[in-house]
Amino acid sequence: MPDFRFTPLDPLRFPIVARFYKSHYPAGKPKKDEVIWTVEGETGLCGAVRFKQFDAFQLLTGMLIAPSFRGQQLGDRFLEAVASQTQATPCYCLAYRYLTPLYERAGFRVIEKSALPEELQGRYVSYCNSGKDLIPMRYFPLESV
């Protein structure tokens, strides 16, 4: 299995991550006030995930694995590598339905829309109304489930 490095983003490398999203997921625009983690392999950047910070919680958003690395369990390894981030403060995710099993393996659980923080409920409804098939989820440490 290839060797990968999972690290918080060095702010000087922000333009590289911005280009990565633009190439593979144009709707997912990284912002400098987000906590961003990256995964790099021998050929460079392979993936990124962003954590939008709120006062009392965070939102895991925009997880992206380069198409050539999909289907190789890199997403599972990435979520395991960012566990310190997901455990730092309550963490939510609005996951595409087909990715629910990936997030569940990492400790996220499906929750009711009403269990989302108020700041995320409107965002969730808006995304769903625009045609996205999303499932609200919250991270629970695996030992507490």
UniProtKB/TrEMBL annotation:
InterPro entries: Acyl_CoA_acyltransferase, GNAT_dom
Descriptive protein name: Acyltransferase
Organism from which the protein derives: Enterovibrio coralii
Top-level taxon in the UniProt lineage: Bacteria
Keywords: Acyltransferase, Transferase
Pfam families: Acetyltransf_7
Domain N-acetyltransferase: 1-141
Molecular function via GO: acyltransferase activity, transferring groups other than amino-acyl groups
Gene3D superfamilies per UniProt: 3.40.630.30
